[in-house]
From TrEMBL:
Family (UniProt): Belongs to the glycerate kinase type-1 family.
Entry-linked Pfam families: Gly_kinase
UniProt cross-references to NCBIfam families, sorted A to Z: glycerate kinase
Highest taxon of the lineage: Bacteria
Species this chain originates from: Microbacterium gallinarum
Gene Ontology MF terms in the entry: kinase activity
Gene3D superfamilies (UniProt xref): Glycerate kinase, domain 1, Glycerate kinase, domain 2
Protein name per UniProt: Glycerate kinase
UniProt KW keywords: Kinase, Transferase
Signal peptide: none
């Protein structure tokens, strides 16, 4: 009997990490029903972070809330309460930006709002976790819809951002143009155990690799809007006590910078999630590990979840296999004992995307046959 650890990231746009793990496990069990299968879905701070923790941590409890979404309308969301531990006696709150202020909330195709989407809903969810009395916070900040420097989330936490006349500025990047003063005296204090922010990017706040230049176009910003947002973020940075060049300050449209100003600590998302869900200990007892993501390419080795899972497996001298929606031609898959592309398995990318859960199950079965 084998022990199999299944630790994929989300297959973005189709299947979340928790469901991907479940379907891979279902396929494996179909071929090897007597194996012990551990589902430890991964995340890097983006979409599916709360779901990954909910699946991987026994006793985790969803806390339903209603927040202000990126279109300024109510959104039903949830944050996650992890059980008490010795270093977090009142539990840990896990909050993700994706489900409260994320671009996925703008529909399909998204109704992009490059200047008006903000992070207020994310801050409202963080506030709800603080009101509950958690000992520490873990915040995922991937999949942002906005470029507001974190003004929305900080406003929800008690900061005041005003124009030259002392009036509150508008939400979103549009408000940055009128910003004259930042008052952080009313900010909620950090919980006793601090705030850990999960991010999969290390971009600075401004400049050629900053929040506006790199991510603004994905959120609908025109070249002129990108230039204006970058200049406004640079001016905004002069008002807050944080390093605009810090790695990750430009994450989530500058929300990383805003959280640094609050006193949070930014860390690589995949490594932090792996530690929090006990992945290394589980892999140490495993015979084989499965990981994966939607598209595995030449950049996937740079801090993405599958690469981190593979590194943990190699350190434990445990075989690791990759499942991906597609495997790009520039991807180095030499570190994996086996690789399955859902597009190849299904016959085409369109066929795989039409029934991703089915093909993930088939991939799990194929790997059980090959590695079991």
């Amino acid at each position: 009997m084998h022990t199999v650890v299944i630790a994929p990231d989300s297959f973005k746009g189709t299947v979340g990490a928790a469901e991907a793990a479940a379907r891979l496990g279902e396929g494996w069990a179909r071929v090897r029903p007597h194996d012990r299968v551990l589902l430890l879905p991964m995340a890097d701070g983006g979409e599916g972070t709360v779901d990954a923790f909910a699946t991987a941590v026994d006793g985790a409890q969803r806390q339903a809330i209603t927040v202000t979404g990126p279109e300024g309308t109510p959104v039903e969301a949830a944050w996650l309460l992890l059980p008490a531990t010795s270093d977090a006696p009142d539990g840990t709150g896990v909050v993700e930006l994706a489900s409260t202020s994320g671009i996925e909330l703008l529909g399909t195709p998204p109704r992009l709002r490059p200047l008006d989407a903000g992070t207020r809903g994310f801050g409202e969810a963080v506030t709800a976790a603080l009101d509950h009395g958690v000992s520490r916070l873990v915040l995922g900040i991937g999949s942002s819809a906005s470029t507001d420097g974190g003004t929305g989330l900080l406003s929800a936490l008690g900061a005041r951002f005003t124009d030259a006349a002392g009036r509150p500025v508008a939400d979103g990047g549009r408000g940055l143009a009128d910003l004259a003063s930042a008052d952080l005296s009313g900010l909620r204090p950090l919980p006793p155990g601090g705030v850990t922010v999960l991010s999969d990017v290390d971009n600075p706040l401004v400049g050629a690799w900053g929040a506006a230049a790199v991510f603004g176009p994905q959120k609908g910003a025109s070249p002129g809007e990108v230039q204006a947002l970058d200049a406004e973020l640079a001016r905004f940075a002069q008002l807050l006590p944080a390093d605009r060049a810090a790695p990750g300050a430009g994450a989530a449209g500058g929300a990383g910078f805003g959280l640094l100003a609050w006193g949070a600590t930014l860390v690589p998302g995949a490594a932090a999630v792996a530690e929090l869900i006990g992945l290394s200990a589980a892999v140490g007892e495993a015979s084989v590990v499965l990981t994966g993501e939607g598209s595995y390419d030449g950049q996937s080795a740079a801090g993405k979840a599958p690469a981190h899972v593979a590194a943990i497996a190699h350190a434990a001298e445990v075989a690791v296999a990759l499942v991906a929606g597609r495997v790009a031609g520039d991807a180095d898959v030499s570190e994996f004992a086996a690789t399955v592309s859902l597009a190849d398995l299904a016959g085409s990318a369109d066929a795989a995307m039409a029934s991703p859960a089915h093909w993930l199950t088939e991939a799990g079965a194929a790997l059980a046959g090959a590695l079991g």
